[in-house]
Amino acid sequence: MNETKTVQEIHTDLTNRIYSVRQLVDSYLGRIEDKKDLNIIRDVCTDIDEQVVSAQKRFDEGTATLLTGIPVLIKDNILIKNQKVGAASKILEGYTATYNATVIQKLLNAGAVLLGRTNMDEFAMGSSTENSAYGVTKNPIDQTRVPGGSSGGSAAAIAAHFAPLSLGTDTGGSIRQPAAFCGVVGLKPTYGAVSRYGAISMGSSLDQIGPFGKTVHDVEVLFNTISGADAHDATTINESNRVCTASDKKIGIPYSFIKRDGVNPEVLTNFQKTVDILTDAGYEIVDISMPYIHYALSVYYILMPAEVSSNLARFDGIRYGLSVPGKTSADTFAKSRATGFGPEVRRRILLGTYILSHGYYDAYYNKANLVREKIKKEYAEAFEKVSVILTPTAPTTAFKIGEKTKDPLEMYVADIFTVPANIAGVPAISIPSGFDSDGLPFGLQFTAPHFCEQRLFDIGKEFENLIQ
Ligand code: GLN
After folding, report:
1. How far is the CA of 131 from the centre of ligand 1 (A)?
2. How far apart are alpha carbons 341 and 118 in whole angstroms?
3. Rounded to the nearest whole angstrom, what is the distance from the C-alpha of residue 331 to the centroid of ligand 1?
4. Which of 30, 176, 253, 338 has an alpha carbon within 20 to 30 A of 2's alpha carbon?
5. What's the rounded mean pLDDT across residues 312-324?
6. Whole-number Å distance between alpha carbons of 337 and 312
7. Is the pLDDT of residue 284 over 90?
8. Under 8 Å between Cβ of 154 and 148
């Protein structure tokens, strides 16, 4: 079975009985077993056989959709009913999900086969998947390197051909940055385009669930399946209200933001090459000035920990997973949290509670929210002049395992180009754009106005053809 086939090609094969859903799923499961040492998969789902039978039945009865029988892997912070879920944290040890996330229900309705859960940074905090209680995931392209994070498992799974599709979450870059590091496509949808019901919250005003795939079209298919309004998530927006105006061939580049310290020269050379390719294809490049996005990372590291500290308060050693008994309930609470949370999660909870404390709330939290409004406005103004904004996805290619674990600030900079889209709530996609001198993939990031995912898919598919 050809492991590089697209969703459409697999669908055609299944329809024409070239192979059965069972044979397809077994070939992916075989690869997962053979490459266990990459530490990409946490657990394989316990009900795969039932899923396979019902998917095959839909082909036999003629009710199959494009996703019927297609294997999909799920990040370990999205709930699948009756399957374990851990957000790669010790504090959720032994916990089983009691309901399906909306995105999972939609996948099941389409007949997709959920294969299992992928490794990640604990509670989605990180850029390398090194903050996982299950141990680091290795990048399939070079096993001495990280796959990026926090959805490193879901990105590596596509690169290692463990499934044609996977889901991740993106709060500050956790879909796009690992997509770039693993040479696959990853989309962070518009805030409100995909329901967050059943996703374990990190920063609720920033989080979005989104798709990974080998091609832009595969990602588009998965996005169209999981998106839409949901009564369980009041921040989701109805199809009819998701308007996007017609676009032209103008691409904005915030050059002063990109050409900065810490951006690898090879990344810039590759970026310029892709700009030349797009110019030759008839796109007009506009140098845009966006002074406020320079502050996006600082704003993120105020707002995100504040939201983290309140979201993670629910893990008290009583309601979910791990419980370390103490003399009083407050003691149980403290002991369970101290034992269950890893160092990065503890750091962010401390930061967040500090930021939200009485004396500092105005100085930090409120100030960061004001700058967030400026950043949103800056995007709106930029999109009056151009259709999409182009940047590299990350300042470097995949770094070595252990290279950045000693200095959290150095790790945070990995998200410099991806965080602004979360702050503004706009959609952004990372698409592979060639390789560096070590054979490591580069990622190119296109950003569009709210609910203009289609614009990203259209230009993304054109770009894929141009660089082939
Ligand atoms: N790497 C960023 C962080 O550590 C983004 C994480 C994410 O998008 N979930 O917060």
Report:
1. 11
2. 19
3. 30
4. 176
5. 93
6. 10
7. yes
8. no
| Ligand 1 pocket mutation, candidates 132, 415, 417, criterion most atoms within 8 A of CB | 415
The whole model's pTM is what? 0.98
Rounded to whole angstroms, how far apart are CA atoms 72 and 167?
A: 8
CB atoms within 10 A of CB 249: 14
Determine the atom of ligand 1 nearest the C-alpha atom of 124: 9
- Residue ID of nearest Cα to ligand 1 atom 10: 125
| Burial class for 53, CB neighbours closer than 10 Å (0-12, 13-18, 19+) | exposed
Among candidate residues 116, 147, 124, the one with its CA nearest the CA of residue 41: 116
Tokens encoding 67 = 């996703």
**150 prior amide bond cis, ω within 30:** yes
Choosing from 89, 127, 132, 150, the catalytic residue is 150
The answer to whether 174 is a known catalytic residue is yes
**Which pair of structure tokens corresponds to residue 314?**
């629910």
Which atom of ligand 1 is nearest to 171's Cα?
Answer: 8
Which among 166, 131, 126, 146 is positioned nearest to 41, based on CA atoms?
166
Cβ proximity of 217 and 66 under 8 Å? no
Pocket of ligand 1 (CB under 6 A): 124-127, 150, 169-174, 202, 304, 415
DSSP 3-state of 441: strand
Q: What is the pLDDT of residues 394-417, one digit of tens each?
A: 999 999 999 999 888 888 999 999
